[in-house]
Structures are given as C-alpha cells and as structure tokens.
Amino acid sequence: MINLPLLKIGNHSPKYPIIQGGMGVKVSGSKLAGSVALHGGVGTIASVGLACDHPDYKGWNYFDVNEIAVAESVKKARESAPDGIVAVNCMVALTDYERQVRSAAEAGVDIIVSGAGLPVKLPEYTRDFADVALVPIVSSVRAADLIIRKWSRQYGRLPDAIVVETPLYAGGHVGATRMENVTDMAFSLERVVPDLVKYLEETVKADIPVIAAGGIWDRPDMERAFELGARGVQMGTRFACTEEGDADIRFKKAYIDARPEDVVVIMSPVGIPGRALLNPFVRKYISGEVESKPCIAACLSHCSYLRDRSTFCIAQALVDAYKGDWENGLFFAGSNVAKCSKIERVGDIFDELVGG
Ligand SMILES: Cc1cc2nc3c(=O)[nH]c(=O)nc-3n(C[C@H](O)[C@H](O)[C@H](O)COP(=O)(O)O)c2cc1C
Predict the structure, then answer these.
(1) 14 or 310: whose pLDDT is higher?
(2) Residue 356 pLDDT > 60, yes or no?
(3) Which residue from 237, 242, 339 has its CB within 8 A of the most atoms of ligand 1, so it is best to mutate?
(4) What is the mean pLDDT of the chain?
(5) Ligand 1 nearest-atom number relative to CA 44
(6) Which atom of ligand 1 has the smallest separation from the CA of 116?
(7) Mutate which of 332, 336, 349 to test ligand 1's pocket (most atoms within 8 Å of Cβ)?
(8) Which one, of 222, 262, 233, 249, lies nearest residue 323 by Cα?
(9) Which ligand 1 atom sits closest to the C-alpha of 27?
(10) What ranges in the chain are assigned the alpha helix state H?
(11) Residue 305 pLDDT more than 90?
C-alpha cells in the first residue's frame, strides 16, 4: 500500500485526499456532504435544484429559493462537521450559476468546485472571499489551459486544484462535449492526469494539485490515480449509495439492482453526454417517445427542451429520480454502479479506503 498524498486545496487540508463529488439533484445534499466532511474527506453539496423540495418553493420562486437553499445546506453540512471541509459544486451551465456561487461563498463554504462548462468568471463572483478555494473540473489539458490563461490574465489568480473527470466512467454529465469522446482513450485518466501534472509543473510553474475523478471505487483505484500524479480522488457513485446519501431509498435500490449492461450514455438536454441507468424513462427517450414534464424554471442557459421541445426537462427528470420514481426519473450513475451491492455507511467506506 502506498502512502496517501497530502492534499491541500487553497487554505484547506482534508485529513484524507478523498472528495465526494457533487451529485445533483440532491443526491449529495447537506447530509451526505456533512458526513463525508466529518469522516475526513471533502463533502460536496450539489447546488443544482435544491429548491425542489424546499418548504418555501411555491412554483414561481425557484431561483430565489435555490439561493436560500444553497446557504442553508452549507450551514447544515457545517453543523454536522464543524471542523470538516465542505464544498459546493456549481454547474456553469445553470442560469442561476452566479447567484449560487455567491450564495455558497457568503455562507462560508470552503471550496467551490465548478464544471459543466468552463468556469471562466468564477474568481469574479468570489472576489470578496479570499478563503474560498476555487476548483475547476476539466476533462483535458486544453480546457485547464484556457481557464488558467483567462484567470491569470483577468484576475491574477490560479485554480487551487483541478479535478480531471474522465468521460470513460464518470456518472452524470461526463465532461466530454461529443458522444465519440466518451470512449476516446485520449480522455482517460492515464493520459490526462500525467499530462496535466506536467503542464502545471513545467508551463504554469505552480503547485496546483490534480484530483482524479471517474471510475474510482476502492483503494487500488485510488493508488493507481496517485501513481499517475494525482494528489486526490473524487468519487461519486459509491457515495450516492450510502445511508447518508440524500436521495430516496428507491434511488439507492436502483443502484443496487443495476448490472453493467444497464448503464448507458445519452445526449442530455444540456447538449453534452450524460451517463445514466437504462430505466423506462431513458428507454423511451432513446426510442424518441419520451413525454416531458413541463419546464420548471428555464434553469439552463442552453436547453434543447426549452429551445425546440426535443429531449425533456432534465430538472424534472432528476428530481423524479431523487424521489425514487423509477418509471419517470433520470438516474445518473457512473459505470461502477454495478459494483453497488448494498447501501453502505460513509464511515465504513472511509475505513475501507484509508484504514491501516
Ligand atoms: C447521480 C450523479 C449526479 C451527478 N451530478 C453532478 C453535478 O451536479 N455536478 C457535477 O459537476 N458532477 C456531477 N456528477 C459527477 C460526480 O460529481 C463525480 O465527478 C463522478 O460521479 C465521479 O465518477 P464516479 O461516479 O465513477 O465516482 C454526478 C454524478 C452522479 C453519479
């Protein structure tokens, strides 16, 4: 067993170099994030759609309630883990991206992780919060280079860490922009992590930790990522299927029942591929028969459902999945989902990953 690297993200040093990835809608809320933070990892709240089951949500005030719910979730996670490290994952593709970022920063979150687009304006939205570490998610060195050039020119700052998420295995929106990239080995962790580490050391000449995401399940997977030069790992699917996971128990049961052949990649209404379970809803979508629920609130800056009624309202479908509706939900999942055989406890996962 190799030693675990020390991970420092801005001013924040988690006990273990393990980040629980943000998973929306509400698959990783304050409960899961608080528990991961308590056990020594970075617990991440997904900011998307938190209004969906908030008592103040009346149907017309989605964005206002989202903003309030982001702050409340940070505070709740912090209460569960006063000394832990709490992050919020904000997706660039969201209409209320800026409001969610500002709300998280004002609520005192430690780290903002941001992908599903290039977070080029993230430093501007967090300018007054020097202690908030900023972590973009990329799937290529090219994307990291674009962000770094833009941030250093415009804001004189660099990312505090960079997550490399491989489209080969990751759950949810996979980072690749085109379907053919999803299986392209040029986007594997084996290719991108060492290249990015080298680029940061030799070109940027900065000590920016790289965090590997996508397909990481156990200690050997972690060690492979560390051998590539990563100083942390981000894990989604395994943490989604825990007692502390915020989704309905039927969401977790769907994970447990999933076989490798039940995992598919579809083109999402955002216009990028997403990995999900092949349930009745996805089956209908693939065969061109899906009937969408109405748009919740124009929550995406580019949405093919809003544009021409092709595809479906992804917010509604993700909320249905969070509530455990197998027929109508969109159950995002990484390809490791077939390894879920029971609902685990966060503490047991940490014992297994870092014990000894
Ligand atoms: C149910 C689900 C929802 C996700 N939602 C988001 C999200 O809102 N924002 C994001 O950046 N990544 C999202 N992801 C990606 C995870 O944060 C993480 O990077 C990824 O799942 C890592 O791969 P793994 O599942 O193989 O561990 C999601 C993943 C899953 C499984």
Answers:
(1) 14
(2) no
(3) 237
(4) 95
(5) 17
(6) 11
(7) 332
(8) 249
(9) 1
(10) 30-38, 62-80, 97-106, 122-125, 141-155, 189-199, 219-227, 237-240, 249-257, 280-286, 304-308, 314-322, 346-354
(11) no
Go through 261-285 and write b for each residue having 16 or more CB atoms within 10 A of its CB, e for each that does not: ebbbbbbbbbbbbbbbbbbebbeeb
Identify the bridge partners of residue 164 per DSSP, sorted by sequence position.
138, 212
Beta carbon of 125 within 6 Å of any ligand 1 atom:
no
How far, CA to CA in Å, does 83 sit from each of 11, 43, 78, 79, 109? 13, 12, 8, 9, 12
> Where do the structural domains in the chain lie, given as residue ranges?
18-247+342-354, 250-337
Is the pTM value of this prediction over 0.85? Answer: yes
Kindly state if the Cβ of 272 falls inside 6 Å of ligand 1.
Answer: no
pLDDT in tens, 219-240: 999 999 999 999 999 999 999 9
Nearest protein CA to atom 6 of ligand 1, as residue: 23
pLDDT band at 129 (very low <50, low <70, confident <90, very high): very high
Cβ of 213 below 6 Å from ligand 1:
yes
Query: Looking at residue 298, what is its pLDDT?
Result: 87
Nearest residue CA, atom 8 of ligand 1? 24
Residue with tokens 């051998």: 227
Percent pLDDT > 90 in the chain is 87
Q: Cα(236) to centroid of ligand 1, in Å?
A: 5
Q: What's the CATH number of domain 18-247+342-354, 3.40.50.460, 3.20.20.70, 1.10.10.10, 3.20.20.140?
A: 3.20.20.70
Pick left, alpha or beta for residue 67 (phi over 0 → left; psi -120 to 50 → alpha; otherwise beta): alpha
Residue-wise pLDDT for 33-59, tens only, equals: 999 999 999 999 999 999 999 999 998
> What pLDDT does residue 90 have?
97
Does the beta carbon of 189 lie inside 6 Å of ligand 1?
A: no
Task: Indicate if the pLDDT at residue 310 is higher than 90.
Answer: no
Cα 174 to averaged position of ligand 1 atoms, centre (Å): 8
- Which atom of ligand 1 sits closest to the CA of residue 47? 8
Which structure tokens are listed for 105?
A: 């920063």
Does 114 contact ligand 1 (Cβ within 6 A)? no
